[in-house]
Every structure is written in C-alpha cells, then in structure tokens.
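Backbones bend. We report:
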Amino acid sequence: MLGQYATTLTFIALGAIFAYSFYAVLIAGQLSLGQAGFASLAAFSGAYLAPSGDDVGDVAALLIAVAIGMSVGAIGAVVLGLPTMHLRGVFLAIATLGFAEAVRVVLLNQEWTGGAQGLGVPRVLTVGMAWTALALVAYWFWRMGRSRYGRALEAIREDELAARSMGIDVGRHRLAAFVTAGAVAGLYGVLYAYYVRLIAPNDFDFVAAVEGLVTAVVGGSTMFLGPLLGSGFQTIVPEIQRAVGVEAGWIRPFLAGLLLLVVILFLPGGLASLLPRRTRMPSGAADDDDTTGLAGRRHPAAGEPVITLAGLGKEYGGVHAVRGVDLEIRAGEVVGLIGPNGAGKTTLVNMISGLVPPSSGSATVLGTAIGSTPVHRIAAAGVSRTFQHSKLFNRLSALENVLVGAHLVSRPTFLRRLLWLPSARRDERAALRQAARCLERVGLTDLAASRAEALSYGDQRRLEIARALASDPSLLILDEPAAGMNHVEAGRLSELIRSLALDGLTILFIEHNVGMVLQTCTRVVVLNFGEVIASGTPDQVAADPAVIEAYLGSADDDADGGPLAGSPRAGATAAGAEAAPPDAVANLRPGAAGTLDTPDSTPRDAT
C-alpha cells in the first residue's frame, strides 16, 4: 500500500520542506522569492561535490550532500540578505526574484551543471528519508514558536516599529530568519536532486518559486503545521483530479488558483488558522515575585538624572517642530507633557525614545546618547513606551503581546528548547509569570487569551501599558494613554500611574486631559510651537499666564478668578478638575479665545 503512494507521499514531504523555507521568512513579515535560487545552488553543489555512493555508501553520500547544500544555501542567504534587509514587501520580493533568476541563468550556462540537459544524480532518497527530514524541519519550527526568538519574529511581522521599541533588533532577527530560509531551501534542493535523478536549472525557475510561496500561504504562516497542510492540499488536489478522470491540463492551475483565492478571502491565516492557538497561563500565582529566570536590570536611584536635554530641536524642511528644548527629568518623577495640538509633544518623546533623530542639540537618556543610537538599544537601556495610536500585535493574544514586551528581561530559550533542557522551561515560566503580573496590574487577567484585535479600545490602551511594563523599565513614556477613555477609566489610569511612581518608576506622559495631568504629575512641562513655555508643579503651571494664553488666546479675562481656575471657557479648574468633563480642557487650541473644541473635531498632534 505504501509503495503505491510512495511518490505522492515523497512529493508532499518535499513540497512541505520547500514551503518551510518560505514560512521561515513569512513569520518575520518578509516576502522573499529567492528560495528557488538557494535550492538550485544547493542541489547542484551538493550533487557535484559530494562523493559517490561507491566511495562512502549511498546514505553517507546523501548526508554529505545535505551538509554541503544547507551550508551553500545559508551562505547564499547571507550574501543576498545583507544588502536587501532594508527592503520591504514587493521590493524585497523583486530583489530576491532577480537573484533567483540570475542564479538560474548562470547555472544554465555552466558545463559542470550539464546546462539545459541537466545533471544526473543517483536516486537515494526514500519516502521514509523524506518524511524524517520533514519531521526534523517541522520540529525546528515547532520548538522555535514558543521561544523568545520565535515571539520576536512574530512581533516583527505584526508591527516592526513596536517590535523595535520593545528592544528587538529587527535587522538581526530578519537576517537570522533569512539564513534559516536559505538552509531549509538548500535541504530541499539536495533531497529533490537525490530523488528525481536528473536535475536542470529550469527545475528551480519562477514557477517553482511561486508554487513554494503559494503552498506556504495556503497552509498559513501563523502556526508551524501550515507548510505541511499546504503541501498536502496542493499535492493531493491534482491526484484527486486524476482519480476522477479529469486530465485537461488547464484544470489543475485553474483549481489551484480558485482554491487559493478562497483561502485568501475566507481564511487569511491559511489552513492552519482552523487549528486553535493555545494560550498558556503560568502555573504559579500571578503575584509571585520570584524573578529567577529573568535578566536583572539596575534602576537609577531616586534623584538621579534620567533624561537630560540641551537645546534639542527637530526640523522638517523649514518647519521647526521642536526647538531649543532644555529639560532634565530625575528618577522617581511623574512629568506631564501638555500643550495645544501641534505643539511638538509627540515629536519630542519620539526623539527621547530614539524613533526620530534630533536635528540639533544633544540628549542623554539613562546614560545613552540619542541620535545615532538604534531604537532597540535605547529600549535596552531601560526606556519603554506606548504610542499615540495603539501599536499592538493584533493576531497575538494579550498574554503573547506582554510576553514580547518582556523580551529584554527574559533569556534566550530556543536552542535549549530544541534539547528539552529544564532551564529553558524554567526561564519560559519566569517570563510567563512576569507577563501575568503585568496583565494583572492593569486589570486584564481575564482577557489574557483574547486576541489583541478583539479587545475594546480602552482595553487595548491598558494592554499596551502592560506590555511596556513587562520590560521592567526605568523610564516609562506614555503617549496619550487616556485617549478614548471616560472619566472613570481615566481616574483608574491616574491611580495606576501614581502607584507605578511609588514603585520607583520614572514616568513621562503626554495627555490632553489637563485635569488628569494636574492630579497625577509631580511636575508639568508645557510646550507651544515646539518650545517650552512653562515648567513646574501643577499649581504653578495652572497659574502661569503664558499657559493660559497658549490655551485660550488671552489671559486678560482670567486675571480676577485665577488662571484656569473656575474659567467657564476652560471648563475645569485646578482644584475642581475632577468634576469637569475630562476633555473640556483637553482640547483647547491657541487662537480659540472664548471657545472650546469638541473632542471629535480636534485632530491629534500634527507633529
């Protein structure tokens, strides 16, 4: 019975291995078509350089060819990956496709490859060998999925900017994924050569690359079983077609294209999305303070400088988004950054967190000079942040999002997971406990298994804070954390921020809800047109005429009753902010004297 279907089973295994080479980069958000080039280089190199079976035995010859082929594929991936890692999407696909076609043309014109006639290779591969190789490749990706490395790749796929801010070195991880793809494609090329007996450069052309990519996409890139499901689907459909007596050559590509369209429209996650994705909660209590298995971090002592800005500025052409900002924030402070829309608040925190390089001035954050320092290194220094518009990893669960946030304090486990070492399990449990504690801190424990995209807006904002806390930061930057929250939720958030400050965390946050800022912060900094116009305690800032003028256009009418105190135009007072609608003061704009902008009509910071 097995002999009757041996060829079909072998091609399912080979197709799945080739699809895994695409899966290796798809999970990191890369669209590459260079795997056909890696496979062809490996196939011809392995078959040509490996000794014959007469010298060392057929199986030994195959193993040597596999080692050569995987090495050649990995080296080829490095050579191609280094200059192309800055490309994304279709541009990366075009560049890698060009590489594959160049390799095919070169091999087609070499004597040692046999040219168009091809190179003869003894058939050594059996169905058992093919499935053994497939099992090893699938095992590799299975053990990778729950590791810190695997979560980093998924985070990069979902949102590269957020991944960088979590301390993930995106370039290094993408290159590692590319090298894995090259090695797996090399394995496929050698196994294919030792099964079909005669290989030609045209066996690894554009059509082969597209078929490998389609197999991976149909199977799905969100679970390690995807390539196997896709290969079985793509291989069995033509067999069923032949079994029912349909021999028309155009039927197979038509059915394949139609089914691919159905999968993309109704199963964008591929066939693997039909399988449930299990979320593991830690076995211990979430409030367990045991940090064994987590990397330690030294936090600055109370009063030590955390942020030092000197003449910091940012220009976009002739537009000064931020100019000449001098600011020092010390450990343990809760500093609110407020100002009218377009004042440059988000641009300033983007410079502090390394997302935007300054045009002038200097800045030091936790001992790290910003400017040319990559974002992930600033995050490694102890900076964690949220974003003005939530940047969550939507297809990951809430718990997995927070686990990614713990990237910097958790330890690498992938290689140890391959060997089932107890230390890997211990470190993974420590990371899970850390994530569970952070979810509990923001009140999202019951939603740990829910996908981020399925959460309400307020829950997404809290989840982003939990993810930021998971890295055990020294400096937490919050960009409009109360946006979209009602006054009850904003009050709870204010309590959370104050409790974090009591734990020694330094917090800098942007917020349009001025009442919340005055209640929460130890110090308030006000920006207007990119410049600091006031800095001091909440009471001092609330009484500053320059602040009133920036928000209301004129301070004259507030001279008697106290600036921002009891002003009907402000809609809130420094003392009575709790009773005022949260957005009443939040959306004041310069030049709008005597009027208020409604929350719905006010745009976010233009800069």
Remarks:
- Confidence is low (pLDDT under 50) at residues 555-607.
- The chain is about 50% helix and 10% strand.
- The first helix runs from residue 6 to 26.
- The first strand starts at residue 119 and ends at 120.
